[in-house]
Specification:
By secondary structure, the protein is an alpha+beta fold. It is built from 7 helices and 16 strands. It folds into 3 domains: about 50 residues; about 130 residues, Lipocalin, CATH 2.40.128; about 100 residues, Lipocalin (Beta Barrel), CATH 2.40.128. The strands form 2 sheets. An 8-stranded antiparallel β-barrel has the order 1-2-3-4-5-6-7-8. Strand 10 and strand 11 form a beta hairpin. The chain starts with a helix and ends with a strand.
Amino acid sequence: MEFGYWWDVILYLHSNIKPPCIAMKHFLLPVLIIILFASCKSNTKKTTQDSLKTPSVMGPSSKIMAEFKYIINGQWIKSDYIAEIVRSKSPLKAWPKAFDITEIFINVDSIRGDSLNISVNYTYHEGGSFILKFHKGQFPNSITVYQEGGNIDNKQFEIGFNISNRDTSLLLYTYGQNKKLIRTDKFSRLKANKETTKNGSTEASYYWINKLTIGGGYEMIDTSDIRSKVEFKNNGEVTGLEQFKTYSLAIDFTTPPNDIDLIYFGLPNNNSKPFIYQFKKDTLCIYDTRYDKDSVQLLIEKLKYKMVKQKLY
């Protein structure tokens, strides 16, 4: 029974029991008060249980967020660019495939409300940022994206995904005026490991570009036909090559020298020395360089190192 019923009973007994029944009155009142408090406790417990059984209602943004966030999380590189890296082993030849956005960095731990700031990389020359909104886009698998400071050149963007044979791709849709789709760019996820994450997200780019181009073990043959072992590690370290301990490949060709594939070897004094490199099938040729008379472009000089990649790698 409800609280109100027992309270009415107590008030009635207190007001209407006459002196001959005083003893009964003193007996019944405490008993009824105990029943009253038991009833209150029972109702409270029932209310709590009922509230726990009530299902929570998710808004549209929450549903979209739950569907998207773990699929799109990670570091993504343009698929056409990385495919050309694999084919040519040349960042210079792959560079035209890098336009406009080369990489997208998405960290869902930074979601605030229905929004997420994401970072982008433009052809390895400069960075930028977008605001991702977990709002439904024009495709069933897309959500809206805005450039900070407003969309440029009346362009609008959406991010989506495609899953095929357990392989997930990120899709960047670009729209022009009247929301007309003008291009779709596909991105592949860069796999993370201890080497790629220890110094920040950009390490993953260099790690995989190194791995897919020059990384591995080689047998070097000098002019006297003396053979030695050289290894280019994916993390940018090199062993067996004179005094050099580190290397770095040029991947930004926005400014000169921008017409040759360059490798920079680190010197003990923290400076670096540029060389030109070329692959001829499995043979890696590294050439000395010198600047032109304007000290702008690097010119190829004599062959410095010649080495053959080992099949083990």
